[in-house]
Structure prediction request, 515 residues.
Amino acid sequence: MLFNESISISRVPCKLPNVCVVDVNGEEVVRLIGIYAPDSKTWSWDDLSHLLSKKCIVYGDFNVDIMKDGKKADILLKWAGDYFLAQALPNSPMSLRSDRVIDYAFVRGINLDIQVYNGNTTSDHLPILSVIPFKVLQQKQIRTKCSILKKEVCFLKQIAKKELNLFFSSKLDILLRHRNSSSSSSNSFWYRSKRFLKPSSSSIHAFIDSSGQIVKESDLMCNIAADYYEEFFKASNIVRPHPYTDSPEIEYDNNDEVISEVKLDELINTVLAKKKKKSLDAHGISNYMFNFLDLNYWSLLLKLYNYSFQKSVVPSAWKDTRMILLAKKDSICPPSLTRPISLLGSFQKIGEKLFLTRFRDLLFRRGLLPDSQSGFRERFRLQTRLLLFLEDIYSLMSNSAPVCTIFVDFRTAFDQLWILVCLGKLRNLGIPSSFLNWIEAWLINRRCFIEINGSKSRWFSIEKGGPQGSVLTPTLFITYNCDMDSSLSGCISHFFADDLAGIMAGQLGINYSSQ
Prediction:
């Protein structure tokens, strides 16, 4: 193994032939294990087990094709599974003499990308390339206090600053000219400018109660907010019989479809992909905890999530929510002008992400979501929806048609979701019972408390709506409203989650535009 001299490493003693072990020292130690495993090797895979660490990568020529070598591959995969090692396979074969894939890696605790280097080589195997993310320890800089060097650096800094300003101003001018086009430069413009389009919300300093008095004490503010939101989240009164809750069930060919089983690799990748934020849920647990979760618990979590999907059971503690409030406009306002943000259970968020992957696949296979809906969907972008919206308006106006556009924002859309009606409508859309039962278990029997400046309110029940901040709630909402486009036949509709833009024009202009 070769390392840059600026990287701090330490070699781990190993007596196994053709095995090299090195620890790369950073904020966390990453262990690299390089092996060459010919058929004539004198050691077994279990002999490597004591060399594995919390974060490690096993690179090398395993001389085993996982897809083709049958029993040899099963032995290797069993060893990897016993020690929670995930496969990292390249995108094409490396051998120049055959199509076997025998050079790859196993990883634990690290998200690794790996690919084949297609350049020139003197070996009969193409090299593999990968990027290992880790943070190095900060090194103290040596100050020389050289006045000449300081002046030279300041001079070069001014030149670089001037050149950068000229470069960015010229680039911005080009991007602005193409921002409404459908070219790749338009995508680049939106990508660079989206950082400046983030919404902002102010914290709450005081509440205005029903009598008009300003309340600043945190305990009283919590009680006022709890009274308001307990009433707000009470179940909706549905006039029965209702077409979605009381109509005869429709038999679909996929009614017996089950939720697919979660694999260990998928669970680990889902957890690693989550942002390790330190905000606490209702029970004082954060996503940051997953950085220190012992490896012995992964198999338990895997069984829990699979049992939850199979039996449609969600632990009640996972559904407990800590709610914080943000002011929509003024920092002193009544509770009705606040925006509730739910800090969900850390384990429940992993379950929601795993379920969302399967739910989206089901929606795609059944073709339930219309193309006019671009919110919270893979391969659908707000920028594209905006360009299509402008194109429709320009097309109608070019035909001298009177054009009227109505913008609709559904008030508290996610919080007003009728649970029973939503489940009934999903059933009529052909969502299998296994998915419906899990969604019902996820939505019902929820409770939360409100926290303001460290003070906590009483627990109260949530009987309607989906959790704010959940990755699953937006997809459930757009599925619930997937037929709205067909109900608005008098206009051209554009949806982005709970926002609607409807374009209405004279019939003559519509006829010419369609032609």
